[in-house]
Amino acid sequence: MKTSWKILIATLSVGLFLSACQSKMTGIEAIEIWARPAIKDGNGAVYMAVKNHSDQADELVAALTDVANVVELHKSEVNDQGVMVMLKQDSFPLPARGEFLLEPGGYHIMVLGLKRDLKWC
């Protein structure tokens, strides 16, 4: 039976630095983290690659930040009417020794009710 450990991506700071519980080449690693600029009181999306360096599958179950009132895991997809919609997700799968991409038009972390502007650093 496969054991799935829950991990938590935490601390999205002012400069959009997102760090995961990790250790080099043995745990979970978030890399290439970025977000488009967004304005205070608005919403934004955060993208990255999440690497699972372990031999066991895992899942990302939440994200936290101090720059937004609400943080959610989302997936964008085109519905039956050809309209792009965002669907809230309970988790993102992290395959053993694999990578999960969060990118525009797909999976992403939504930051809702921004407390300050998001700018390129």
Structure description:
The protein is an all-beta fold. The chain has one domain: Immunoglobulin-like, CATH 2.60.40. The chain has no helices and 10 strands. Strands 3, 4, 6, 7, 9 and 10 form a 6-stranded antiparallel β-sheet that branches. A 4-stranded mixed β-sheet has the order 2-1-5-8, with no helix packed on it. The radius of gyration is 15 Å and the shape is globular. 24% of the residues are buried.
List keywords for this structure.
single chain; 121 residues; mainly beta; Immunoglobulin-like; 6-stranded antiparallel beta sheet; 4-stranded mixed beta sheet; 10 strands; 0% helix; 56% strand
Structure class: mainly beta
The CATH architecture designation is Sandwich
Oligomer: single chain
In total, the number of strands is 10
How many helical elements?
0
Spell out the CATH superfamily: PCu(A)C copper chaperone
> What is the N-to-C order of secondary-structure elements (H for helix, E for strand)?
EEEEEEEEEE
**Roughly what percent helix?**
under 10%
What low-confidence regions span 5 or more consecutive residues with pLDDT below 50? 1-23
Strand content: over 45%
Task: Tell me the name of the CATH class.
Answer: Mainly Beta
Tally of discrete structural domains: 1
Q: How would you sum up the global shape? A: globular
Short description:
With 121 residues, this protein is an all-beta fold. The chain contains no helices and ten strands.
